[in-house]
Design brief:
The chain is mainly beta. It has one helix and 14 strands; from the N terminus they run αββββββββββββββ. The protein folds into three domains: 100 residues, no CATH class; 56 residues, no CATH class; 59 residues, SH3 type barrels (Roll).
């Protein structure tokens, strides 16, 4: 992607104004100049190194540098830094600097793509839906453009209530959901326990609120024993083994 270099907060201007102290030395006559490609590569590599994490695929494309700009060749390796922008933003500005005595500093815009597996709606979901694993799926999406957030684990969505209707394949965000407690503190619950091939049902009391999929403490009414259980439905928990 080709973009002119810009000063943060201003419209694109002639690149001379982009140079911070000390000013870049313009290569004249036969003086060797720094290749624009090396500057762009340094900016892109800075971003790739900064965002090197598991379970994501990152690509970076530095903007085009004005062909009229000639910077003196740097005798040492180019230095890079990120003064503006933020992680997981689709566009970030990277500073590229030559630390020679007559060095220069140039700001280069870099466009990002960060692909991750995130949670999306598996079908059209009406407002008020209490989400189950059957309602959602994961797909690879570019999260650098998702400024309202996203979910990476389906368990973050299961048991929560939708605040508005979602189309199929729509990205789920934290702000679209509210916690729907299937069990409330102090209420009576049915405790399911598996003993070999036998399933036992006991009465108990919830010691905290819990949404479907969450682990809470419950108290067995018969033994007064407190155990950990997973909420599996309204008023029903399964003892954790």
């Amino acid at each position: 992607m080709s973009r002119s270099i810009t000063t943060p907060g201003r419209r694109p201007i002639w690149p001379l104004l982009l140079l911070l102290w000390p000013l870049a030395t313009l290569a004249a006559g036969g003086e060797r100049s720094q290749s624009h490609e090396s500057i762009r590569t340094a900016a892109e590599q800075h971003v790739l190194n900064d965002l090197d994490e598991e379970n994501q695929e990152v690509s970076a494309s530095a903007g085009r540098i004005d062909n009229r700009l000639r910077l003196s060749a740097c005798a040492q390796e180019l230095d890079t830094f990120a003064p503006y922008g933020r992680k997981n933003s689709s566009r970030i500005t990277i500073g590229v600097r030559c630390n020679d005595s007559d060095g220069w500093t140039l700001y280069v815009p870099v466009t990002l793509s960060i692909m991750k597996e995130i949670v999306v709606a598996g079908r059209e979901l009406p407002r008020g839906t209490i989400l189950t694993s059957a309602d959602i799926k994961t797909e690879q999406r570019d999260v650098a453009r998702l400024h309202r957030g996203y979910l990476e684990n389906p368990r973050q969505a299961v048991g929560k209530k939708l605040k508005r209707r979602l189309h199929a394949d729509a990205i789920l965000t934290p702000g679209q959901m509210v916690i729907q407690h299937a069990v409330k503190k102090g209420n009576q619950v049915v405790i399911l326990a598996q003993i070999g091939t036998l399933q036992v049902r006991m009465n108990g009391k919830a010691l905290s609120d819990g949404a479907v999929g969450e682990r809470i403490k419950v108290e067995n009414n018969s033994s007064n024993r407190r155990i950990e259980a997973t909420v599996i439905a309204s008023g029903v928990v399964k003892a954790t083994t």
